[in-house]
Amino acid sequence: MNTLSVNHDFLRRTVQEGAFCIDATAGNGHDTAFLCGLVGESGKVLALDIQEQAVTNTRARLHEMGYDTVGTVVQDSHANLAQYAEPESVDCIVFNLGWLPGGDHSIFTRPDSTQQAIEAGLRLLKRGGVMTICIYYGGRSGYEERDAMLEYLKTLDDRQYTVLLSQFYNRKGDVPIPVFIWKE
Question: Cα separation of 149 and 105, whole Å?
């Protein structure tokens, strides 16, 4: 059991066929393809990543899995989410913070753009929509983004959002932190 498996189990129980989902940090396309499988032919998934390598990897994965008509991949910052969907039109948004596995570890998500992306994403979510955030930290990216996100998430209005923070309490090292947000 790890952060990704917990996240996917949650999404499997939450995302319905026909949904509109956004993978705000496409990476190598694993979550994008997973979401495509959940939403089916009647749904759609938009994936964004700032790195060309991530966009290429994600497009290749979607093509290989036959999800070309379900998933769209765009090279852009997650901070620009609001340019790709109307307010209250999205069922689910997924974030994996940190760096591209197998990529250049000197390029990683940053607190300022991530907070902008989360704020935009919350406006895009429908009532009853969900957002998941896997906070990967440590190494070259350090702890700045983790600390900033944990502080920021405390400030979300509890009349509009429910934020569940989880942790693997008996694991050692810089264990990723799964976060789940429901829009009321």
Answer: 20
pTM comes to 0.96
Confidence of residue 130 (pLDDT cuts 50, 70, 90): very high
Give the burial string for 51-90 (b: 16+ CB within 10 Å, else e).
beebbebbbebbeebebeebbebeeebbbbbeebbeeeeb
Q: What's the average model confidence in pLDDT over 76-86? A: 98
The confidence score (pLDDT) of residue 22 equals 98
Residue 100: is its pLDDT beyond 90? no
Banded pLDDT at 103 (limits 50, 70, 90): confident
CB atoms within 10 A of CB 21: 27
Give the Å distances, CA to CA, from 157 to 79, 119, 153, 178, 184.
21, 12, 9, 20, 10
d(CA 146, CA 97): 9
Interatomic CA distance for residues 151 and 172, integer angstroms:
22
- Residue 32's contacts (CB-CB under 8 Å, 6 or more residues apart) are 23, 26, 45, 47, 58, 61, 62, 67, 71, 73
Task: Retrieve residue 67's tokens.
Answer: 């999800």
- Token representation of residue 135: 């906070």
